[in-house]
Inverse folding.
């Protein structure tokens, strides 16, 4: 998760270059540290829940005679876990964005490059590929 924040430790807002580029105040840095700490454990828990649901689905798909109803039910659980993680990511990003001025936000977006993930939004790992049955 922390690598998604743009530097080891995850706190891009503590990087002296970013502080200078964005002209962050000490108060802004403190507020972002606080938001990071408040959201960090929840994001870790939600990511773990997603991984557990994906791991639970693996043997269902790999079974010699897959039970479609069980698989579909588990897919719903995976989708719900993923949705909860994405909502938490969005809430966290919005809490970070509220700390920045509009100009700082635009500069931050320019720093991340076109199409890159928001520097303050941790991403869930890609789901593992389902094992394929060899025929």
């Amino acid at each position: 998760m922390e690598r998604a924040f743009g530097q080891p430790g995850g706190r891009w807002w503590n990087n002296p270059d970013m502080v200078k580029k964005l002209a962050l105040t000490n108060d802004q840095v403190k507020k972002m540290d606080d938001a990071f700490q408040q959201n960090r454990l929840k994001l870790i828990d939600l990511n773990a829940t997603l991984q557990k649901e994906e791991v639970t689905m693996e043997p269902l798909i790999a079974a010699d005679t897959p039970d479609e109803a069980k698989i579909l039910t588990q897919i719903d659980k995976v989708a719900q876990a993923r949705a909860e993680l994405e909502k938490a990511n969005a809430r966290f990003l919005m809490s970070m964005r509220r700390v920045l001025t509009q100009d700082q936000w635009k500069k931050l977006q320019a720093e991340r490059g076109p199409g890159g993930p928001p520097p303050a939004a941790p991403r869930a790992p890609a789901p593992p590929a389902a094992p394929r049955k060899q025929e």
Q: What stands out?
A: The chain is about 65% helix and 0% strand. The radius of gyration is 19 Å. Helices lie at 16-22, 26-62, 68-99, 102-112. Residues 1-9, 120-127 have pLDDT under 50 and may be disordered.
